[in-house]
Design a protein that fits this description.
This protein is mainly α and about 290 residues long. The protein has 2 domains: about 120 residues, Up-down Bundle (Ferritin); about 160 residues, no CATH class. It is built from 12 helices and no strands. The longest helix is centred in the middle third of the chain and has 31 residues. The protein is elongated. The N and C termini lie far apart (about 80 Å).
Length: about 290
């Protein structure tokens, strides 16, 4: 091929395909779930087929990107298949633009890759994963902890004016609320089980409780790290936003949903609760003249 620009674009696409093939093949061999393993293995074989098609045009072999392969292996094993694979899919946007631009030079190549990409998305949608199945329980724990504890801590900040007392009070409140939420989730899922739900009540309660406790610990930590309670409150609000963003990024990526609207809605509600609770704390301190 004489056009060097097109040749370089093809080789870049070729390298991506062989890198993805090695990633998917490795994951397929590590996954215990037979259905998921077969799906990932099929995607890997598709990527190898893409590689061979491009190789037939470039007439050269290329090596995979080692860092890319290791990175996506780590992400998929640590954070789950759905998240890792969807993240890979998002990272392929540049490759998509490459394929579209190559349609003019090699029409049949564009059609092959557009068809295969659609097939890949369909396969990714078939993956079943426990962490995503129980996402509702996780968001229940995170959401309630953020709403309740951010509000409680904001109110206590002005009412008590003592970081350690605020932190200890928040911890006790948070642990009690976590157990209450986990128990409620257990009973709720048990009720659903009577209607042929496949979810485990115990696992669902565990996801809710653990998510709640982790959020509690993250939110009360600033009161033990900073002397100034208002700096602690500011850090708490920043942590809340970060937790909301991280969780929403994880879920929307894993499920292939839009991020920013969901994030903005959850962040707005959480911050609104914190502001109202802070004002309640001001009112309580003023009316009852609390001095701690």
């Amino acid at each position: 091929m004489e056009n060097k620009e097109v040749l370089n674009a093809l080789r870049a696409a070729q390298r991506n395909e062989i890198s993805e093939y090695h990633t998917y093949s490795w994951l397929a061999g590590r996954i215990k779930d037979k259905k998921n393993s077969e799906i990932i293995g099929q995607i890997g074989r598709d990527e190898l087929a893409h590689y061979e098609v491009i190789k037939g045009i470039t007439h050269t072999d290329v090596r995979p990107k080692k860092f890319m392969v290791l990175f996506y292996r780590f992400i998929s094993i640590t954070f789950g298949l759905s998240f890792g694979l969807r993240l890979m899919e998002q990272g392929e946007k540049a490759a998509e633009r490459n394929y579209k631009s190559l349609k003019g030079e090699i029409p049949e190549l564009g059609k092959v890759f557009m068809d295969e990409e659609k097939h890949e998305k369909e396969l990714l949608g078939l993956i079943e994963e426990e962490s995503i199945e129980y996402a509702g329980a996780m968001v229940l724990g995170l959401n309630d902890a953020l709403m309740e504890l951010t509000g409680v801590l904001a109110g206590l900040t002005f009412a008590f004016q003592n970081g350690k007392i605020i932190g200890i009070t928040g911890f006790i409140t948070g642990v009690a609320a976590a157990m209450s939420m986990a128990a409620s989730e257990y009973l709720s899922v048990r009720e659903e089980a009577d209607k042929d739900s496949n979810k485990s009540a115990l696992r669902s309660a565990l996801y809710t409780g653990v998510a709640y406790i982790i959020t509690v610990l993250a939110l009360i930590a600033p009161y033990f790290l900073f002397r100034n309670i208002y700096i602690s409150l500011g850090v708490i609000l920043a942590i809340s936003i970060l937790i909301i963003l991280s969780y929403n990024f994880y879920i929307t990526t894993a499920k292939g949903l839009p991020l920013w609207r969901r994030f903005a809605e959850m962040a707005l509600i959480s911050l609104s609760v914190a502001v109202i609770s802070f004002l309640v704390g001001v009112l309580v301190r003023t009316v009852f003249k609390v001095e701690v």
